[in-house]
Design a protein that fits this description.
The chain has 14 helices and 19 strands. By secondary structure, it is α/β, with parallel strands linked by helices. It has a 5-stranded parallel sheet with strand order 7-6-5-10-11, covered by helices on one side. The radius of gyration is 23 Å and the shape is globular.
Length: 388
């Protein structure tokens, strides 16, 4: 488990102690203390995600976003209050949100699949830059005018959002300086920071569906959906472990004279590890991208058997037209280049960017099919396509 168990135990103890103290003080004066005030906490209901903690009490849930952005030094705590739930004084310093919510604005396409899987997509009323959304289900709602444009992430339209009055705005932060978020909060709107993008493990990202489950009082459904994804992912990984071959893999492409490859501890790299591939930069330390000169990449990767995710290219010709050096790689010559950029939504949004973080089991199956096709003979690629 990724979360700090000692910290969780301490938090549970403090909350439970606060509740017991309240019951003792008021119980001495009132013998008819309602049963609803007898609250007991359960353990943190998050298994893989490093930046999310959920503590379920009777009548309310404490949600903690402990890693809102990389190297963050602050945390965010939200109290999700059910109808007739009683919040102890010790927690009233934190934002209190009534759940289940009835309307929401989200700011990342990665949030859309969670809403749809939970069956609450009809509560989405606003999104910045709706053309990026690929989902056919949500696109239909956009086309009907049921999802409003709310600006762009760096500059959300506060006037529109204040007029809309969503129950919750779910956004993300790059750092602690965001005047737009501050202005929205000052206007009385509930703004929640979501840190799913900081997670590196495939299952850690997917587990953030529980964040949305908590907002809608759909914890059981969210837990069940994630458990199914977790099971499918682990079954696929076990299947990959049956093979003894580990083909060499190159990744990335040139951008502004530098080649960017996923670092060894990154989300993309961990998929390649679990798919039993020999990713050529797996030993590098870091969670983002590593910039390298072309000559260094060619030296290490010219004979790689596969090339995965070569930027946003959708054909081999497009690649060679962009840079003739691409055609010098063995994987290019042997037509073993696979891209996620071919599968797009109606407005050009890349499906992989929207759905992959919620469905890592499908990403892993794709990669196993590519590297070890004999293990999944009847499986058809979902995200990735072989470039022709």
């Amino acid at each position: 488990m990724y979360h700090n168990s000692n910290y969780s135990m301490k938090l549970n103890f403090l909350y439970s102690f606060a509740i017991l103290s309240l019951l003792f003080l008021f119980g001495c004066k009132q013998n008819d203390v309602k049963e609803s005030t007898k609250i007991s906490a359960v353990a943190n209901n998050v298994k893989y995600a490093k930046g999310l903690e959920l503590y379920n009490f009777k009548g309310f849930t404490v949600m903690k976003v402990t890693k809102p952005w990389p190297e963050a030094t602050k945390e965010f705590t939200y109290i999700l209050k059910e109808k007739n739930g009683i919040i102890p004084d010790s927690l009233k310093e934190f934002p209190v949100i009534s759940v289940p919510i009835q309307s929401i604005v989200v700011t990342s396409t990665t949030h859309i699949p969670a809403l749809e899987m939970l069956g609450v997509e009809s509560t989405l009323i606003g999104f910045p830059s709706t053309n990026f959304i690929s989902s056919t289900k949500t696109r239909k709602r956009i086309d009907k005018g049921k999802v409003r444009e709310v600006g762009i992430n760096e500059n959300l339209n506060t006037e529109v959002l204040i007029d809309m009055k969503p129950n919750v705005i779910v956004t993300f932060g790059i750092n602690n300086n965001n005047s737009t978020i501050d202005n929205l909060k000052k206007s009385g709107l509930n703004v929640l920071i979501n840190g799913d993008w900081t997670e590196q493990s495939p299952l850690g990202k997917a587990e953030w569906i529980k964040f949305f489950g908590a907002l809608y009082n759909l914890d059981t459904k969210a837990n069940s959906l994630f458990a199914s994804i977790e099971t499918n992912y682990n079954k696929a990984m076990a299947l990959a472990n049956e093979t003894s071959t580990k083909p060499t893999v190159l990744s990335g492409a040139i951008y502004q004279d530098q080649w960017y490859v996923p670092q060894g501890q990154s989300w993309a790299s961990l998929f390649l590890r679990d798919a039993k591939a020999n990713y050529l930069w797996k030993e590098t330390k870091g969670f983002g991208s590593l910039s390298l000169p072309f000559e260094k990449v060619f030296e290490i990767g010219q004979n790689a058997e596969f090339w995965i995710a070569p930027g946003d290219f959708t054909s081999l010709k497009q690649m060679s037209d962009s840079n003739s050096h691409y055609s010098k790689f063995a994987s290019f010559k042997n037509k073993k280049v696979y891209s996620y950029a071919v599968n797009k939504g109606a407005k050009g949004g890349i499906v992989y960017f929207e759905l992959a973080s919620t469905r890592p089991d499908l990403v892993l199956k794709d990669l196993i099919k590519i590297f070890h096709s004999e293990l999944l003979p009847k499986y058809n690629l979902f995200f990735f396509k072989k470039l022709e």
